[in-house]
Write a structure and sequence with these properties.
This protein is of the alpha+beta class and about 80 residues long. It has a domain of about 35 residues. Helices cover about 25% and strands about 5% of the residues. The longest helix has 20 residues. The radius of gyration is 14 Å and the shape is globular. The two termini are about 15 Å apart.
Length: about 80
């Protein structure tokens, strides 16, 4: 299977960076174990997280945001499968 690498810069308060790293490590562990799970991530929109992402020279123009409605869940594409 072909793999590519991207460089991602995340800017956020230190405690929020820890949460982001935990999310990434969880995804990596599940992929390594071959364990299919739904990972739930709460995002509080009050501005305290204020995360910014820089995807470098990656062309991500074709990546669309999911529909954000009044529902408290936002579903994004899964990883793998």
């Amino acid at each position: 299977m072909e793999k590519k690498t991207i460089s991602l810069t995340v800017t956020a308060p230190p405690d929020q960076l820890g949460s982001f790293v935990q999310l990434c490590k969880t995804i990596q562990a599940l992929c390594t174990l071959g364990a299919s799970r739904t990972v739930v991530v709460a995002v509080d929109g009050d501005g305290s997280g204020n995360m910014q992402f820089d995807f470098g020279d990656l062309d991500h123009s074709g990546v669309q945001l999911p529909e954000i409605t009044g529902d408290d869940r936002v579903r994004v594409a899964g990883i793998g499968g």
